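Job type: complex structure
Entries:
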Amino acid sequence: MAEYIVRPIGVVRSALKDPADAPKQGALTGQEAEIVVDPAYLPALDGLERRVAPAGKTVPGGARRKDGKIVVFCWMHFADRERLKVHPQGQEDLPERGVFSTRSPHRPNPVSLHTVTLLSIAGNVLRVRGMDAIDGTPVVDIKSHSPELDG
Amino acid sequence: MAEYIVRPIGVVRSALKDPADAPKQGALTGQEAEIVVDPAYLPALDGLERRVAPAGKTVPGGARRKDGKIVVFCWMHFADRERLKVHPQGQEDLPERGVFSTRSPHRPNPVSLHTVTLLSIAGNVLRVRGMDAIDGTPVVDIKSHSPELDG
């Protein structure tokens, strides 16, 4: 089968510096972070400002945009790509399971899925809440979030 | 920035044969398809059988598993990776927007996100509902779905 090359479009800037610090499913902890997009991709951000979460007020466009969520894919560069089974949530007392039935970073193609709240955009820097990737993690893609498609 | 190599772990088998046939956001149309996983990755599927959608009855493990949803990433091999702006949903009367504010397949790293219902698993073949990728699309990753993380 053909192979494909991923070229990161940005990087995560976070107070989380070490994989051991990263909370499991840190989306639920409200960790804030920045996504610094390579300026070459600035045109691709156009329209994303409509997704910024409102600070306690409604926005034009209705309820579907009010949650302010976007989808971010990262490349988990510390992942073990050879690992096909893991202890769920790293708990060694739980029996190993196939990585495709988990959210472990260890998997053949370590692309992570983060549904985060978009707090602000300033130029090429997105501020988000609910991001558990550590500082320096390469960002692969950004998408609009859809409760109908993704929920 | 470093580059990374994606090695597909499987392929989509679908009645949708042509990109022009693929419904926009076909997750909403209930399109069924098969995901044929490379047998080398069979151990990574272990545990996924617990995610199979029940046929009208409850399952052990409670409500969180009852929806039978999983997350599938594909590589959109027909995408235009140079394209930074698109007409949303391909509608040329709508003004162009940055691809990162859309779900267009055209984007620098064309990894797609599909939240699908897992209908059955037979060996290395997963049958799913809500998959709009066309026949022959490379599959990059499979993950458990979490309403808390992804909804």
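Summary: Chain A touches chain B through 56 residues (CB under 8 Å). The mean pLDDT of chain A is 89.
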